[in-house]
């Protein structure tokens, strides 16, 4: 009865180090780790101890006897990663790299690090830093709610992926961790000010912009970006008012990465099923009156180059009706005759079994379409369709581009305009002593939530090395001065107690029927945060001094 890794694998590698027989690969130190679509358990080497189950932050691992029917394809997928052989391998083990201890005694006090952002890269960096004593981490987040794309990016029907927030909650309860939510670095505080209060500033701000498709008609009502749609259905306060017209039968999505699949799935899912998730109320209401019958996911290249991952394709075909038209079925067959790569073949084999688009539409469906490069959006005052470079056209009331995220320049740091990242060496920002980056702003917008664990660890190891080598200047101010500075600039700062109050109120709004009912209005969030019980000011000051 071996264990099996399934769709929500976040690739953070915790399971690798928990496994006593080293049967989970690729591991973070192996070459394939950076590009793998998931991790795989070797069924011949697994001793069925379940240590990986406890280590996995997203509940992606189960014994093979406990899989749901939809998860059964993952049995073969895990096994196929390993060559066939006779007998068990001798057990080995893999130890997680350990952060060097910061030499706080010789530096006369704790290592003080500011982390900007509170998404996965930020929280994994905080987790890594706080494995050592004598480290204080202050996290600064623009919104009153933490966890970045886990809250505002992961699709609401992927609740098991969102379970990683339990790990982040545990990190935030560490005595060395302080949250400054609703505080925007660059507006309320500058980079130079943060450096005056810390040894180092680590930016984990993600890639907040979209890559823009520069074709005629973009910007007309009815044209949106997929990332805006994702933020809208996830209740991000800045996108709650997005004018999303679902009053037409067809939506076209440009690009076929995992974000495109997320949007297509949500737009075609049964609203009653979505009502059991934490989807934003405004989105659920709009989806209940949606007229959309077909979402076409249009890729500019052929099936072999589909950008979505195999686990997501398996999940999509289990949850939704997905079809191909006859020409695309032929393309899949042609690719199967030439493609050797195992994972790509797996994808093609699933595509080959999809139904035909000529069948009548009985419920909202997704059509995966290939060799369609967009030329222009059609329509005068609003979108009425899209024309591709081969002259083909599709009627559509909504066109969403889903061609990737893009990083945004950070004030006072260098920026690579082409790659959309802050230039860095293993996380050390070039020519900027004391500045570090982790996550998408460091390596570009690729990978999964857990990919940020090893990415953040690399940065943190560099940071501690610099601290121990005396390359970081000491903060100019005492720790308590930071709290005063932040409150003078942003009196509505939300602390950990405030977030816990928002969290509890959202869970209560879920009424036991859904994981939570999200607030989307910042004023409402702040009002709830203000109800949090907290010690009087003088006790807070004392706690800060003692910290
Ligand atoms: P992505 O995987 O990079 O896909 C981008 C898509 O846009 C590709 O199909 C690409 O086609 C297409 N594209 C790029 N430029 C184009 C152009 N000018 N015209 C037409 N098409 C164009 O990006 P993503 O979907 O935004 O995902 C970002 C990352 O987040 C990925 O690593 C993804 O796996 C991850 N993610 C994971 C999950 C999950 O695990 N559930 C969910 C969401 C996101 P070409 O290949 O032809 O360039």
From TrEMBL:
EC main group: oxidoreductase
Organism superkingdom: Bacteria
Keywords, sorted A to Z: FAD, Flavoprotein, Iron, Iron-sulfur, Metal-binding, NADP, Oxidoreductase
List the Pfam families hit by this protein, alphabetically: Fer4, Pyr_redox_2
Asked if the keyword Iron-sulfur belongs to this entry, the reply reads: yes
Q: Where is the 4Fe-4S ferredoxin-type domain?
A: 1-29, 37-66
> Can you state which reaction this protein catalyses?
2 reduced [2Fe-2S]-[ferredoxin] + NADP(+) + H(+) = 2 oxidized [2Fe-2S]-[ferredoxin] + NADPH
Reported EC number(s) for this entry are: 1.18.1.2
What InterPro entries does this protein map onto? 4Fe4S_Fe-S-bd, 4Fe4S_Fe_S_CS, FAD/NAD-bd_sf, FAD/NAD-binding_dom, Ferredox_Rdtase
Q: Which cofactor does it need?
A: FAD
GO MF terms, alphabetically ordered: ferredoxin-NADP+ reductase activity; iron-sulfur cluster binding; metal ion binding
Question: What is the official name of this protein in its record?
Answer: ferredoxin--NADP(+) reductase
Tell me the organism.
Answer: Mycobacterium adipatum
């Amino acid at each position: 009865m071996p264990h099996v890794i399934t769709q929500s694998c976040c690739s953070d590698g915790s399971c690798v180090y928990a496994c006593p027989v080293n049967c989970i690969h690729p591991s973070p130190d192996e070459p394939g780790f950076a590009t793998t679509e998931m991790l795989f358990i070797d069924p011949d080497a697994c001793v069925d101890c379940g240590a990986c189950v406890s280590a996995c932050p997203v509940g992606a691992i189960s014994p093979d006897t406990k899989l749901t029917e939809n998860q059964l394809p993952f049995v073969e997928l895990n096994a196929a990663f390993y060559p066939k052989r006779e007998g068990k391998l001798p057990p080995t083990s893999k130890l997680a790299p350990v952060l060097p201890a910061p030499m706080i005694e010789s530096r006369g006090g704790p290592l003080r690090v500011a982390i900007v952002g509170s998404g996965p890269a930020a929280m994994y960096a905080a987790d890594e830093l706080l494995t050592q004593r004598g480290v204080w981490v202050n996290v600064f987040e623009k919104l009153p709610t933490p966890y970045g794309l886990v809250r505002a990016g992961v699709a609401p029907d992927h609740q098991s992926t969102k379970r990683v927030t339990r790990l982040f909650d545990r990190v935030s309860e560490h005595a060395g961790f302080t949250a400054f939510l609703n505080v925007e670095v660059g507006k309320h505080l500058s980079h130079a000010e943060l450096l005056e209060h810390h040894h180092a500033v680590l930016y984990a701000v993600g890639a907040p912009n979209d890559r823009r498709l520069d074709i005629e008609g973009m910007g007309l009502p009815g044209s949106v970006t997929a990332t805006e749609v994702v933020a809208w259905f996830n209740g991000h306060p800045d996108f709650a008012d997005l004018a999303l017209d679902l009053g037409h039968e067809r939506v076209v999505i440009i690009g076929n990465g995992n974000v495109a699949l997320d949007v297509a799935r949500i737009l075609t899912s049964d609203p009653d099923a979505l009502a059991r998730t934490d989807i934003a109320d405004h989105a659920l209401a709009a989806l209940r009156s949606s007229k959309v019958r077909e979402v076409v996911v249009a890729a500019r290249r052929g099936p072999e180059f589909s950008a979505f991952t195999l686990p997501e394709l398996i999940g999509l075909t289990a949850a939704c009706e997905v079809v191909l038209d006859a020409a695309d079925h032929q393309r899949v067959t042609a690719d199967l005759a030439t493609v050797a790569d195992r994972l790509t073949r797996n994808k093609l084999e699933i595509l080959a079994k999809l139904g035909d688009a000529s069948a009548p539409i009985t419920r909202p469906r997704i059509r995966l379409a290939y060799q369609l490069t967009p030329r222009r959006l059609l329509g005068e005052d609003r979108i009425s369709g899209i024309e591709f470079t081969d002259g083909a056209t599709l009627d559509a009331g909504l066109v969403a581009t889903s061609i990737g995220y893009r990083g945004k320049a950070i004030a006072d740091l260098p920026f690579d305009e082409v790659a959309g990242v802050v230039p860095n060496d293993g996380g050390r920002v070039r020519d900027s002593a004391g500045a570090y980056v982790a996550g998408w702003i460091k390596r570009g917008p690729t990978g999964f939530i857990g990919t940020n664990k090893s990415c953040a660890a690399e940065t943190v190891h560099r940071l501690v090395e610099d601290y121990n080598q005396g390359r970081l200047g000491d903060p100019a101010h005492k720790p308590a001065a930071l709290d005063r500075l932040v409150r003078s600039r942003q009196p509505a700062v939300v602390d950990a107690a405030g977030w816990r109050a928002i969290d509890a109120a959202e869970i209560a709004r879920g009424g036991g029927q859904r994981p939570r009912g999200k607030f989307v209005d910042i004023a409402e969030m702040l009002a709830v945060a203000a109800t949090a019980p907290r010690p009087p000011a003088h006790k807070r000051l004392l706690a800060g001094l003692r910290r």
